[in-house]
Amino acid sequence: MKPISLWKQMSRTARVIVLLMLSTVSLTTALAQGFGPAGPSAATGHASVVASGTIRFSETSGRWHITRHISSDATEVHSSSKLGFIIVENTPLLVTIEGFGRTRLAAGETIAIPANVEFTVESFGTPDSFLFVQLLPESVDQLAGADSRVLTSASFDIEEAAYDVDLIRDVLSENEEGTIPGGAAPTAIYVMVGEIKVTSNRGTTDLYQGDSAIFDGDVTITAVADGSVYYAGFVGTELPAPATPVPTDVPATPETPATPEPTEVAATAEPEDSADTDGDGLSDAKEKELGTDIDNPDTDDDGISDGDEVNTWKTDPLNSDTDADNFYDGGELVRGSDPNNADTDGDGLLDGDEEYIYKTSPTKADTDGDGVNDLNEVRNGTDPLDADSN
After folding, report:
1. Taking all residues of the chain, what is their mean pLDDT, rounded to a whole number?
2. Is the pLDDT of residue 106 over 90?
3. Domains of the chain, start order
């Protein structure tokens, strides 16, 4: 039977239904083509994209890699031939990226590291760990110098193209759900805190703190433990190739006689001993004497200007943690602890350990006011934040 004959035999209602179906398909296709790379974010609900970048694949297979590294000092220089993401696990770290400057990252914070750029990761005291997350072509090695390997996924197919890559973070309450749409490649998920269930086209997978895995297609993440935190590496749509500009002839501008410019009178130079190039309150001469950077008002990047460190707080402008208590000087001023005293409240715990490990007050020897100082509570196994735990 010819299609036209079938159309004639159909009722008016059936014809309307067919036309609506065709229109819907056409509209869906048009929307998909129209959005393309400009489509909505892969982060839904209260999830957020915490870092992103682009990567170009020149081969058709790839892997997700997550490695754990230990921060050292500025002498250990890292570099990767492809984009990567740093995730700080515990205490704050200082990341210095060549050509981009320095950034302090607290626990859970992230930053994208561009390809072929040198970077260093320093601690403010005792060396601590960070994760490095990468989507790599199968022939490319992960970042060198890893302390341990968290994830090296199975190989998967991916088209040769440039892609937008996002690092997504979410915090879920118990039984709360989050979703991530399918991307151009499998999505990598790492659990930082708690426990989650991930439902995908292959079923449901339990992931506990420190676990990681990759998933194809749309995924639903359900928190088993309250306050569960996960990170997801998501590969977005293929990015369009940059357009090649078409050269155009620019009409020549007729020359006009030059107008003589008035001669500027040279400014009187400041005396060498009072010049302060970076405006930090220290003269260049004094900075040279101390070894600080005359072009950087905060040489050690601790949040306090070099001038204030020397003239007001008497801290070391070359050391972000003057008293070596694992708490950077600027943070101590914010919390009210003494950047020149490793144990401000005299309770036997370092200020940094109180701030980042025990969550106690570095300025109160007995945080919960129960008559037992914080160190003794830690030693006894009681809670220094709960007066009723003794």
Report:
1. 82
2. no
3. 40-238 (2.60.120.10), 284-389 (no CATH)
